[in-house]
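Holo prediction. Input below; ligand is iron/sulfur cluster.
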Amino acid sequence: MNERPILIIPCSGIGKPFGTIGRDATFRVVDELRKGRADTSCLSLLVMGDEEATEQIRESDCIAVDGCPLECARKNIEIAGGRIAAYFRVMDLLRDNRGLKPKQVTFLDDDGTRLAEMLAERIAVKVDELGGGGLD
Ligand code: SF4
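Structure of the complex:
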């Protein structure tokens, strides 16, 4: 059993639905699907060099959730010295589900919600695969 905690970090993308979908999926995992088995952290704190956030990612197996190919979450986790245990991109999910076309940004519409649910399921499976030491 892996003893390292699991930290799911979504990008902070705004202006398009992709970032919103990644964040919504992350909250579905840490608040519902795998509550108590994975946590999340604020990417902006990491980018600003916050000591506590940096230490937390260095001690965890990190799952990056990015909206687009610019990969802000994955890159900043790596820059901060974190270990990427798994990686998801909302754009990849859209490619696999071309019939779904999310449009709303602030609140997810039906297609955005469906994509967030699918992404959350995939992340939850990865949390199971990684095991994880659980949260204190
Ligand atoms: S990965 Fe893409 S959507 Fe997410 S914050 Fe970066 S530019 Fe924005």
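The domain at 6-128 is CATH 3.40.50 (Rossmann fold). That is the main takeaway for now.
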